[in-house]
Amino acid sequence: MSSILAFLRRLRPDNFTLALLFTVAVASLLPCTGRVAEAFSAVTAFAIGALFFLHGAKLPREAIVAGLTHWRLHLLVLCCTFVLFPLLGLLLKPLALTVLTPELYLGVLFLCMLPSTVQSSIAFTAVARGNVAAAVCSASASNFLGIFATPLLVSALVVHGPSAKPPLDAVMSIVLQLLLPFVAGQLMRRWIGAWVDRHKPLLRFVDQGSILLVVYTAFSQAVSEGLWHKVGVPSLLALALLCCLLLAVVLMLTGWISRRLGFSKEDEVTVVFCGSKKSLASGVPMAKVLFATSSLGMVILPLMLFHQIQLMVCAVLAQRFAARAEGARQAGAQAGPQGRAQGGLQ
């Protein structure tokens, strides 16, 4: 009974997920329009710039270059993030379009192009007894390269999408609104890095606050254009099942490829968690930059669902990896004294 209760507690949504659901509900009942929407859009743009500035100030420069010593692992994580995921997104197109609208499939394809998470990838790797140092480097590299890789992938794969911006506009928008604040934060880290490190709750507040602002403005626009008339309960269930299928395939492939390439168990854990997740914190701001406002709600809806599913599944998976590591440790500890005793008898 206690194990069942523990399992149910792990599946319980966290506070931020509840805040996301509340924001969607408020946008559905009280959508902002007109000048209020314009004001929210301006505040959101400022919050996103502040978010990437603080991320640049927070990230140690060593974390960007330190991962070069374990290049095989990092290259595999990046390939899973920016090659495997987009390929799966394209392969799922025939199935997706039978149960989803083209706009929702565009959201599924977009989430496949996003970088990995940072905080949760590192946290799950630590819980699962994986290579935490490698997770820090891989997740950081994924987010930094995603600033360039995601708009290029969107430009290459969403060539017929009416809501996608032209390639040059997409790259320039990312550079101006996301990369420049990030670089400015990196340059200012020498003076403000210690202060940012001491005030991590501020970064979390800006991080989550900017996402909630984008979600509110995006869903306000989408609701005004009849979002919930286009997306019913059957479509939401089909979308959730498609996200589960996508995550299950990636989890199996990342583990299988890691073993085939001869990585250790600790490195396998790192590849599985860093290579299978997608960043809501990066994805929502990027969607605002890359897509027209009229389609933004439909684009980020699959990402929001995938985000919650990956957290619940990876929480359970991390516990299983940790139990496996603990069992191996205990087996090794028991084998040690037995081996010494047999050696003494001989």
From TrEMBL:
Keywords: Membrane, Transmembrane, Transmembrane helix. The chain crosses the membrane at residues 39-59, 71-92, 104-125, 132-158, 170-189, 231-257, 286-306. One of its GO terms (cellular component) is plasma membrane. Pfam families: SBF_like. This is Bile acid:sodium symporter.
